[in-house]
Design brief:
The chain is of the alpha+beta class and 618 residues long. Helices cover 27% and strands 21% of the residues. The chain has 13 helices and 19 strands. A hairpin with a 4-residue loop joins strand 4 and strand 5 (391-396). The longest helix has 21 residues, at 54-74. It is globular.
Length: 618
Amino acid sequence: MKLPGEDRTLSPHTGYTREHWTAVADGLLDAAWKWATPGGARLDLPGPPSGSGVRSDGLEGFARTFLAAAFRVAGEEGKDPHGRLDRYAGGLDAGTRTPGRDDAESWPVIGDHHLAGQPMVESASVALGLRLTRPWLWDHLAPAVQDRIEEWLRGALRHVPAPNNWYLFPFTVAGFLASAGRADAETARARDRALELLEGWYRGDGWYADGDGRAFDHYNGWALHLYPVLDAHLAGAATPFGARLREHLESFGLWFGGDGAPLHFGRSLTYRFAAASAVGLGAVTGDTPLPPGVSRRLISGALRYFLDRGAVDEHGLLSLGWHGPHAPTVQYYSGPGSPYWASKAFACLLAPPEHPLWTDVERPAPGETADTVVALPAPGLLLQATRDDGVVRLHNHGSDGVRPHEAESAAGDNPHYGRFAYSTRTGPTARGNPADNHLAVVVSGVRSVRRRIHPLGAGQGDGWGWAASWHRPVFPDGPVAVPGLRVESVTVVRGRDELRVHRVLGAPPGARAEQTGWAAAPGGSLLRPLAGWTGRDEIRAPHGTAFVPWVSLPRLTGNVHGSAVFVALAALGAEAGEPVASATGDGAEIGWPDGFVVRIRFAPPVSAPPSVTVLPPG
């Protein structure tokens, strides 16, 4: 991939300009098209297939790269010196001639999400690409080809999406059809249904749940905000969704570290710099609290972070993983074309070269100006950023990724949601390895996992913050649950310090509690017992993380029968403060040498539901 030289005057933090973005888009598209079928309907990229099969994967490669090409051409007001739209027009023609036929070109038909649903995902990228390029592509297609494309797209309106952000795929298809003068009652129903659900999923603080449960992750930026805001922008219509995006970016600007890395949290992380999509879109539409120089620092920082760390392989293709290939980062639904969801980040190219997003001098990211703590009560998250090391940490007391019908499922450890903390510098350990940043109750030699998370609140003060939750420990390798057993947890942060306070209730005789720390390189983290813990050691996680190939975890242990309170100090890095703690059966008091004191009070054990009170200094 050939990139222009750095411009450290305009972009002192990243060196990247708009020309770097267009060069990356061109490089990714050129490399991907080397794997196109003769008719151009599928891009059969090399790699292991997804659970949907190679034909669906080939459509995915076409659709997701089409989105990058569409942003690229639309951002140049139709200029297409590489002739990309002609190639995509040929692929649209070839793919829709005989949908469902088992040949080299035909696209799979769209079905219900649980049967043959993946093409519904890709229909949104096809529709959005067509909408972005309508004057230069769609309007020049033969009427018969337009009709075939419409008929294929309408499969998204006639089948059942997954019960989450998928409802925005038929919404997006319907938006394109309306823009092309093909709206009807069917398109209106799809849009109304999606907007109705979106209202119910909005929880406040600029955050949507991804469905009826409590999944708060990067899908907020690259789907739940992106589709409705971009839809309104392309229609030139007023929308309430812009104000929500603005509120979202108030906190989401802190989801990127000083090195440009997004928080390694949630599913589909192989989409990489798609994490910056909402930042760029907010700059394009004006729905952002971030100055243009800050927005560019964030989006270019994320792009450069991955390019500098091997995200593009020797073929010029985005691999399945994080830096480079990394199997534990990838879900069953991901195939070789999946990483090109990153194409959404090129929404920033809708800002023309003279836009302040590209002409203002880069400014520091929110986490680079001062140590910062932000509590988000609606999703149950606590953000902690430290300026000196550029690390952002997310303390998770509200996002579990558990679907409502799964209840207190013992389906096993979910490394992408079940941990108490995540960061821009570390990843969770893989399934089958000891879990990092985890509180386990060990019963008869079986360790519990944390699945459904019940938030108990979050708040912040001057330079400090807290978040709390409770969960029922479940045991995937033994009896599903122990009657009466629950864990109530509070995280208090100040500077680099993380105070982890847990009350275990209802533990049977012979039980043991275990607390692990960060999965960092040797010497890169600490975990110090302050109250309740009696043992201390390290355990190995030889599968490593997306950041390092091998890690060992600090671990604390303590016996528990009935009820007990445990307090520990954790820190990512080798330095931490010197707080002291005392614990009783109903809480803890934590004090620092400078006189700063926080008191935690748990409700009586018979309370239903559980509650916790965090008393600030004074």
